[in-house]
User: What shape does this take?
Amino acid sequence: WARYMLCDGSPDPKVTKEINTYINLWREETDSKPVHKTIQECHDALKLIDELQYYLGDEPGLSEEDVEKHNESISHLQNLIRVKLDEATMHVLKSGDEHIDPDTQNIQFELTSRFIALNIWGNISRNPRMKSLAFEKKGIVLDIPKSLSVGNVAIRCIFTNYDHFSEKSRLFYPRAKIVPDVVVEPQPVVEITTETIDDGPKENDNDDNSLAAPEPSVATLTPQPPSSSRGRKK
Assistant: This one.
């Protein structure tokens, strides 16, 4: 429903046919256009990437085939963004007269947006006395060696708030630590046996002169008549 309510003309990235048509049409657009328009198209592609990544993480029941198709669409969009930024850079360098810095007579272009900041410098004057250049919006100053100050060179700095490169590194995902199997060796069984040691006959076993223990005496008690509690009459 949220996708339907957008009404911005963007394709539904979950529909393979729509996203493939969008990618092919954008790839075939090779006409030169203003840089800010290219940056806006890159923003639209970034939104589609975010929507696909959210969908992949929110739908655990997707088949492996669907996951592979969506990841392939994400990869195509990321590559196209890089291609379009290269085309925008070429457009700036070809139309250098529109971006000449009056102080240095070199191409100086800076564009900052929500997701992308594009900074381009082109050496037209080839002034050997030029020692540095600055991109003031980003607060960056670069030292230029003499070999570059007289050469036909250009410098481009791109700043993004997204990262499409780290996940392609083989070190991006942590390796699973392999724990060796623990083998418990059986402990040897120690048998403990007990033996009764006979020390021989005791000292008084065969003694005929041993005295028998006296039998306990029994005391005989004679009952006494009860005393009369009445007094005698006189």
User: Anything to note?
Assistant: Residues 217-221, 228-234 have pLDDT under 50 and may be disordered. The chain is about 35% helix and 10% strand. The chain has one domain: 3-168.
